[in-house]
What we know:
Blueprint: H1 3-9, H2 23-40, E1 45-47, H3 57-61, E2 70-76, H4 81-98, E3 102-106, E4 123-132, H5 146-149, E5 150-152, H6 158-168, E6 179-184, E7 187-192, H7 198-213, E8 219-220
Parallel strand pairs: 5-6, 7-8
Antiparallel strand pairs: 1-2, 2-4, 3-4, 6-7
Helix pairs in contact: 1-4, 2-4, 4-7, 6-7
The structure holds flavin mononucleotide.
Amino acid sequence: xxxxxxxxxxxxxxxxxxxxxxxxxxxxxxxxxxxxxxxxxxxxxxxxxxxxxxxxxxxxxxxxxxxxxxxxxxxxxxxxxxxxxxxxxxxxxxxxxxxxxxxxxxxxxxxxxxxxxxxxxxxxxxxxxxxxxxxxxxxxxxxxxxxxxxxxxxxxxxxxxxxxxxxxxxxxxxxxxxxxxxxxxxxxxxxxxxxxxxxxxxxxxxxxxxxxxxxxxxxxxx
Length: 222
Ligand SMILES: Cc1cc2nc3c(=O)[nH]c(=O)nc-3n(C[C@H](O)[C@H](O)[C@H](O)COP(=O)(O)O)c2cc1C
């Protein structure tokens, strides 16, 4: 499964089977997390067989069932922490989809105080991603239109449209999709609109956009 196929196959999954993550799959997942940490300077941690953070009423209210594992997104406090967590967390989510694993981003419906991650001085646990073998692989949901999510100065080039198509399938908190991509010349500006976890969502959407648009002929307007 390539990354574009992983984007199409991924949906949030909140109910998991008892099957453990182990062997080659676990090794590949750890390698991806290590690579993300090296590149980003984040301190992302894989917490396995740790059900406590998801065993409360709030997690059940959030419809989680048998969530035993999660990826804890930890990093130095700072203005860029949330967007970085979005970008690199989604890299791990799509790698997980390639490995046959199911995931769900979780900002609110878990017990942060019970999370097993080690959070150092000056660091923060931004949010987590539940991970495991799902009871199902989830289902597609509604999305905003390409025209709502992006705008180009002139005629919209095909690569920009493909970037937006990938971003349409990006998970966002409460499916709010509060992001916009604007094309001016060869520069793409990514904008977070007001909303919960909007900066995390923007990081996620930027990673999807890069996969859809490819790397040639444009650059980010930071
Ligand atoms: C930053 C972020 C935070 C989220 N927090 C929660 C949460 O606390 N509880 C939950 O059940 N789902 C949560 N989600 C999952 C979204 O509800 C889900 O991604 C969205 O409805 C789109 O569905 P999809 O992922 O199947 O495409 C979160 C997603 C993101 C990106």
